[in-house]
Every structure is written in C-alpha cells, then in structure tokens.
Amino acid sequence: MTIAEISIIAAAFAVAVGSLMPAFAEGRAIAAAMDAIARQPEASGQISRTLFVGLAMIETMAIYCLVVALLVLFANPFAH
Amino acid sequence: MRSPLQTPILFSLGPIPITEPVVVTWGIIAAMALGSALAVRRLSVRPGGGQALLEIVIDTIRSQLSEAMGVDARRFFPLLATLFAFLVAANLCGLIPGIAPPTAFIQTPAALAIIVFFAVHYYGIRSVGLAAYLKSFARPTILMLPLNVLGQITRTFSLMIRLFGNIMSGEFVIGIILAFAGLLVPIPLLALEVVVGIVQAYIFTVLAAVFIAAGVGAVETG
Fold first, then answer.
1. Which tens digits make up the pLDDT trace of B165-177?
2. In 3D, which of B31, B82, B29 has the Cα closest to residue B58?
3. How far apart are CA B210 and CA B202, in angstroms?
4. Given CB atoms, is A70 within the 8 Å cutoff of chain B?
C-alpha cells in the first residue's frame, strides 16, 4: 500500500472510532440530565447550562479526531 | 478540494500577505463598531423598542456570566461580552454568500485563545498579587505544579481547536454535500450551522469566564 492509501484508511478509522465513543458519552450525559430534570424541574436552567458546556467538551474529542484526520489527509508530512 | 488548513491570500501589503479571514474580520469590526455607535446614539431613560432589546441582551449576558463565574462579572464584562458578540458575528457571517467565517481558519481562534490565556493571568495577578498567584499553581501540593502548568497550556489549545474544528467542519461538510448532492440540499445543514455557531460562541465565552474566575480564585476548576 502507498502512503496515500494508508492515510485515507487511517483518517476514516480515526473519524469512525472518534465519533463512536463521544456519541455514547453524549447519550449518557443527556440521559443523566433528563433524569435530573425529571426529578427536579425547577433546576432545569442550571442543569441544561452545565449539560451544554459538558456536551461541547465531549464533542471536542470528536472534533480532535476530525482535525487529526484532516491533518493526515491534507498536511501529511510523509506523503511528499 | 482546498485544504481546510490553508489560508487563501487576497493581496499583499508590502511584504505582508493579507489573507481572506483578516479582511472579513476588518469588515466585522467595522460593521459592529458602526452598529454599536448607531444603537447607542439616542439613549433615553424610557427606552424605545430597539433600546429595550439591547438592554435585554446585555442584561442576559451579564447575568449568565455572573452565574457562571460565581462573582460579580462587571469587571470582566467588557472583554467577555465583546468576545461573545464578535464570535456570534464571526461564526454567522458564513451565511452571507461568498464570505467564509474567519473562525473557520485556525489563526483567528488561535488569536482569541491567546487573548483569553493572557487575560486569565492578568486578572489573576491583579486580584491576588504575583506571589499568591504563582503559589496557586502549587496547590494542593508542589507535586501538582507540572500538571497545573500543562493544564494552562492544553486548555488554551483545546479552546482554539474546539472553535476552529466546529466551525471549519461545518463549512467542510456543507462543501462536500454541495459537491455531491446539489444546490438546495445543504440548507438544513446551514440551519444547524446557525445553532452550532451561537452555541460555540456561548461555550467559548463561558469557558473563558470560568478560566478567568479560576484565575482570580473565585471557583475551583480543572
């Protein structure tokens, strides 16, 4: 296999695994927040604000994987 | 396809190349300065419609910041609210045809993250003094010093990558779908981009507020 083919496979793998795990994590976070809001509806403002910040934190992991994949595809130091 | 890590150069000012996000940022700064000047030109004690709307927006931002920081956010309000307003304008200006949001190029988020990095230390040193501020890096024990220093750098880096990655990936996905599917198909994604742009501006501002609050010793954070 050439460097380019390996890079494409690596980029696809990085995005696949890197979006699978944050998806699970975001699902768990949202489920926990729903549970908390159902128990304590008066605290929903505080909970949803914390949830949004937390979701952005989790989503950043997926974004890191995307940036790594783009680096591998477009700025690969071994391809040239 | 153009690499999302490259920045298109529009023209050169002597030896300095002027890139597209720089020109767009100038445009945003000019538009926001003009808009702000026009909005506050005729203020009165009994506000009209426009002034009431502005007051609601400013008041909401201030109360959100105060809740996030745990202290009165009045001292930090100019920096953080300007950051938020600029980020909303910068993230959403991609909706205008032919203009790419400047936050979709890595230099703009990097500059904003560096501003936040220095603001944290500036406010931290100003509020507790240099010696006490430096000592706070050795909490709870001196063994945590390398981790605390590393944390300062990595959280600035993640602030930059988070904003860049979210806005750039939105543009990128819209570009790919436009190339494959046709003219009107990416419209739902554009609507999603509006939400993502505002949420990311909010996240960036709240994280900057929390970092500054941690710097002045108001709240503990990782």
1. 889 888 888 888 8
2. B82
3. 12
4. yes
